[in-house]
């Protein structure tokens, strides 16, 4: 199935529905204080790109956001955080997440992002397996996740990042 990956506004009915489903899923696994989900308003902030995977009929299949990562210009590593990665349950198992992540990584490299970091949870078994299979390595907790019992953090160097 052909899938397109584009950067879009999160304030669309299909996207807000995916965000709602994502939130419900996270809340079914972890206590509220251990969910670090960005709201639609936060996803609309400067420095945040929301990626949408759509099929040939233009139906939204999955979403993810990349936060930060502007090239520093001083030779230091530019890092961005992957947030809100979610594929609608009906469309899972069809490679949507892999195509979405590949599109994000390609765009990140073009933007000069040299590393993508992310947080997920220990009960998110499919996510843990997916990220490991996509070349992400487990790293120590960082930022707002420090000391969080329900967080597992990953990172991946992005090859070919434009300087």
From TrEMBL:
Matching PROSITE patterns: GNAT
CDD domains: NAT_SF
Segments forming domain N-acetyltransferase: 5-159
Keywords (A to Z) from UniProt: Acyltransferase, Transferase
Gene3D superfamilies linked: 3.40.630.30
InterPro entries the UniProt entry points to: Acyl_CoA_acyltransferase, Bact_Acetyltransf, GNAT_dom
Tagged with keyword Acetylation: no
Protein name per the record: GNAT family N-acetyltransferase
């Amino acid at each position: 199935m052909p899938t397109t990956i584009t950067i879009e506004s999160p304030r669309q009915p299909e996207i807000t529905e995916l965000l709602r489903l994502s939130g419900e899923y996270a809340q079914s696994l972890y206590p509220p204080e251990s969910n670090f989900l960005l709201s639609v308003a936060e996803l609309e902030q400067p420095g945040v790109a929301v990626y949408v995977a759509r099929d040939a009929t233009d139906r939204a299949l999955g979403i993810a956001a990349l936060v930060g990562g502007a090239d520093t210009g001083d030779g230091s590593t530019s890092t961005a955080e992957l947030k809100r990665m979610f594929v609608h349950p009906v469309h899972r198992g069809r490679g949507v997440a892999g195509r979405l992540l590949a599109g994000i990584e390609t765009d990140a490299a073009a933007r000069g992002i040299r590393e993508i970091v992310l947080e997920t949870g220990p009960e998110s078994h499919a996510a843990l397996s997916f990220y490991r299979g996509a070349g992400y390595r487990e790293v120590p907790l960082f930022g707002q996740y420090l000391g969080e019992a329900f967080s597992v953090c990953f990172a991946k160097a992005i090859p070919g990042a434009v300087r």
